[in-house]
Amino acid sequence: METWTPHSPMDSQLTYEDAVAFLYGRINFERTQSRGLSKRVFKLDRMQALLERLDNPQARIPAIHVAGTKGKGSTSAMLAAILEAAGYRVGLFTSPHVSTFEERFTVAGQTANAETVVKLVQTVEPHVAAMSRENPVMRPTFFEIITAIGWLHFLAAQVDIVVLEVGLGGRLDSTNVCRPIVSVITNISFDHMAILGDTLAKIAAEKAGIIKPSVPIVSGVVADEARTVIRAVARDNAARLWELDREIHCDYRLFAGIDSAGFDDADARRIHGCVNVETPLNRWDELEIGLVGRHQAINAALALGVVDTLNSTDGSRFQIPPTAPRAALRSVRWPLRIEIVRREPLVVLDAAHNEASMRALTETLAACFPGKRRVLLFGTTADKDVAAMLQIAISGFDEIVLTCYSNNPRALQLEELERLAGQLTDRRFPAASNSAAAWEYAVKRASPDILICAAGSFFFAAEMRELLMVEATSTATRLAIA
Predict the structure, then answer these.
(1) Which of 20, 21, 74, 426 is 20 to 30 Å from the Cα of 149, by its Cα?
(2) Helix axis angle, 355-368 relative to 386-396, nearest 10°?
(3) Cβ pair 334, 350 in contact under 8 A
(4) Can you tell me the distance from the alpha carbon of 66 to that of 102, in angstroms, rounded to the nearest whole number?
(5) What pLDDT was estimated at residue 269?
(6) Beta strands 161-165 and 90-93: pairing type?
(7) Higher pLDDT, 174 or 30
(8) What angle is formed at CA 58 by the lines to CA 219 and CA 304, rounded to 5 degrees?
């Protein structure tokens, strides 16, 4: 394995705080309204130019490239866990992050330390500065720099393979300069329509942009309109295509739902299901999956499709024994995916942020906790189909508290959220000015049979997670002093 040595630092006194400030000082489309953007601002020439200046680290590490509207983060986490269980050193690139940006590029499940982050920024900064001076249009964005830093970190850490989650779309995403050995498209539904298109066919065309000539593709796309596009692009690229419900089949069984009387701390970590998966080359029976829900069973099936693809590829250096997926799928966890963070009251956080993921959330909670009264704390993003999410939430939750998160300027303001909710139903919704106020409202009215769920946006769920972690730390400190 080729290694990478950091360039001599420009400023040996650079601190971690300086490095973070440099990164967050770049243009960041994750904090920009989609309505103000177009495909013109997303292009690969900046990413390619930056990586060329860094001696193309992405060209020296094989990758599994994962796109999709929903499920791509969980599928990526499953694939990384399976490969690690098989004995490989794995880099995992995901976005966005929950707490710190280093979560986006992990090696063997570990984030980079502060010293490594500083060295990575010192290496990239001169090239970013040069590109910005030479042509302002070529000024790299936050996500492009983070992607480049991820590749440098993976090369320095001597990983065997990288599992790479697409940030947005696929065709013009910064990750689409990788050299995949397998590509995955998990699912396609309506999201980011201002950028990706207003039909499933247009969105599918953007996702299908990750398909490379002769590189196998595993697809969880089921809508006919989108499937037609994926099939055409795969055919044009001579890429072998395995599709869910055609070459890949799965069935899912949730372990018995847990009612309010039978729930305890152990159950909080053992709610899971069992999946059977069949591919053209193998049958996987009774695999336990730690990530709960039928949608996660589908993600597991796609991951197993990748496993069988790797095992059956002539000359592949990656061979996965049957014990690896069984151990990995049982143990893998992923933040904000039906994540239970508290027992009294029972609190679940989820990154559901569009119609499809909100439906998956409500169905899973109803199956897992049939004896619970479900309360939703709902904060969302201005460029989402808020009405579609709320329609599903109204039928899936006993009470909905409307609120607004503060950690990202894309948040839908509370007044507008109240207006949209009022157009859908005569039902009145309590409103809270921020995440902390929403939590205080819900917890004051909590009873033994209540389940509090925060969802509607990744950023809102992440903000609630941080809030609850700080509260738990403060409580533990007070108890220790007492």
Answers:
(1) 74
(2) 10
(3) no
(4) 19
(5) 45
(6) parallel
(7) 174
(8) 30
For residue 105, what are its two tokens? 């590029």
**pLDDT reading at 105 higher than 90:** yes
Structure tokens that stand for 338 in this block: 């039906």
Let me know: does 357 contact 381? Beta carbons within 8 Å: no
Give the distance from CA 419 to its chain's centroid: 30
Q: In this structure, are 232 and 349 located in the same domain?
A: no
Query: Among 192, 213, 241, which residue terminates a domain?
Result: 241
**What are the C-alpha distances in Å from 57 to residues 1, 130, 152, 318?**
12, 19, 6, 20
160: domain range?
16-241
Let me know: does 314 contact 417? Beta carbons within 8 Å: no
Cα–Cα distance measured from residue 482 to residue 460, given in angstroms and rounded to the nearest whole number? 33
Q: Are residues 353 and 475 in the same domain?
A: yes
Q: Last residue of a domain, which of 241, 266, 301? A: 241
pLDDT tens digits, 255-287: 644 444 444 444 444 566 899 999 999 999 999
Q: Which residues contact 328 (CB under 8 A, 6 or more apart)?
A: 78, 81, 82, 84, 85
Residue 403: both structure tokens together: 């609120």
Measured CA distances, 38 to 177, 220, 411, 475 (Å): 20, 27, 19, 46
Question: What does pLDDT average to over the chain?
Answer: 88
In degrees and rounded to multiples of 5, residue 119 shows phi and psi of -65, -40
Q: For 60-74, how does the pLDDT look when each residue is reduced to its tens digit (9 = 90+)?
A: 999 999 999 889 999
| Residue labelled with tokens 């000015």 | 433
CATH code of the domain containing 66: 3.40.1190.10
Distances (CA, A) of 94 to 49, 74, 334, 425: 22, 10, 11, 37
Close Cβ partners of 413 (under 8 Å, ≥ 6 residues apart) = 382, 404
The answer to whether 225 and 201 have CB atoms below 8 angstroms apart is: yes
> At 434, which CATH number?
3.90.190.20
In a domain, 286, yes or no: no
Q: How many CB atoms lie within 10 A of CB 223?
A: 16
CB within 8 Å of 180: residues ≥ 6 apart: 62, 63, 64, 65, 164, 210, 212, 215
Question: 402: which strand partners?
Answer: 378, 431
- Radius of gyration in angstroms for the set of CA atoms belonging to the chain, rounded to a whole number: 22
What residues contact 266, with CB distance under 8 A and at least 6 apart?
none
DSSP-based three-state secondary structure for 434: coil
Residue 193 pLDDT exceeds 70: no
The dihedral region occupied by 109, where left means phi > 0, alpha psi between -120 and 50, and beta the remainder, is: left
The pLDDT value given to residue 395? 93
Q: What is the residue-wise DSSP string for 402-414? A: E---SSSTTBPPH
Phi first, then psi, for residue 303 (nearest 5°) are -60, -40
